[in-house]
Amino acid sequence: LSADANLVEIFSSVQGEGPDVGASTIFVRFGRCDLRCRWCDSPHTWAPASEFRAVLPGGTETSPNPVACERVLDAARALGAERHRFVSLTGGEPLLQPEAVAWLARELREFGPAIHLETHGLHSGALADVLPHVDVVSMDWKLASDVRRETEPKGATPAPFVAAHRAFLERAIEAPRVIVKVVVTPASQDAEIDEAVACVAEVAPDATFVLQPVTPHGPVRERPSAERLLALAARAEARLRDVRLIPQTHPIYGAP
Ligand code: SF4
Question: Is the pTM of this model over 0.90?
């Protein structure tokens, strides 16, 4: 039996960030997130969504949440899931609804695409049930200089994320592929990034480590300089095998 889920939308596009950039992808976006990243480009996903939107070839269909996950399979079929390289389960934070993620990952994999889980990388308990059905775990490494939990007041220094990210990564390495992504803003501290690099080198030396210069959004107005980004990449490369410096590409051509 399928789970019900709070979902924002399903649509077909190409991957806009990370090492699989440009690959055809169906995105399934989950509602709700328990973090507050300063640069977040989807604050509409912070609260549970009232409606689920399926952007289909014949037009957009909406239905009230929660939705039965079978509806997602119908939409995936209509979108020609089998011709896509990936299905990305994204958010919001998908691992706040692990049962629905596991069910959808298992069923959508049957269509053919590899299953890519996009997560903030903090809920290691929820990852266990999902892992057997996922091909790529793409986790963020959040920096306390730019991110807080929803329960922490604005302006206060958030508790560090390092211990929770380490615990998550220790479990994520059971997946066939692991990507660790750090969004770098002008406020990011070198020491925080060095800490991420040290942990990935120790726990997941085969992971792909992505430095993603922030796409200015909301209160974040500027990117870090190219000089700084190249220096950070060189420092990471001294300790890791697979380091990439990749900005988001979908905003360049206006894709969702
Ligand atoms: S984890 Fe993702 S959805 Fe949540 S606030 Fe950060 S960028 Fe936005």
Answer: yes
